[in-house]
Write a structure and sequence with these properties.
Length: about 250
Amino acid sequence: MEADRTAKNRQIQAVERQIAARLSATPYVLLLSIPGINVVSASEYAGEMGPISQYAHSRCITGRAGLYPSRYQSDKVDRPDGPLVRCGNRRLRYALLQIAENLMKCNHHFAALATLWKQQGRDPRHSHVRVASRFARISFQMVAGRRVFRHPAVVGRHYVLDKLIRFHLEHQTQPERMLADLRAAASQLPPGERAAEAAPLAEQLAEVQAHRRRGPQPLGQILPLVLAELGLGMVQSAGSGAPGPA
């Protein structure tokens, strides 16, 4: 049983490494800057969405997913707030609602909104649909406009490359594959955000260089190359001569 479980976990990790590689090569990787969005959920959403150029605006996303109420009309009866329509791409709807669930649990802003709606007596399904619709608008602006997460009600954001590194360390990705994904993701970043993305990487590099006999040593070779990709360049470390950020 234990051997079967280990083999299954390895298979899952291998699949997730593959989808991370595909995500890194698209602008959907920018969604990782949203607190509460991880590699797997962003990849699933990207896979169901396809090229963002297929959508004229964010309402096309919710329309394709069928995230809008049905309407019943008969003579003088008009009920515009029925259950969700039956038509629509069910896989995209599922991806959106799963992301909404994650945001309501892990994103302080959306968790507060969900709590408020619950206190108002709203149906939990209502909260999921509203959060999913808001995410559709935010994701469209980010992916189509090549922007990282910015929201007036949310302080700070997550860092795309830092989140990717943590994902690959957890999945024991080979250094060559990790470097390729980080370089691909770096090419998707807006030029004005590269310095901000480099800051946590420089801190990780300094920590690795200070503890050479402990921790994930491949990072000591990968991080200088990624920092150079971000335009920071490299200098020689004063202590050991190892490459480091400028």
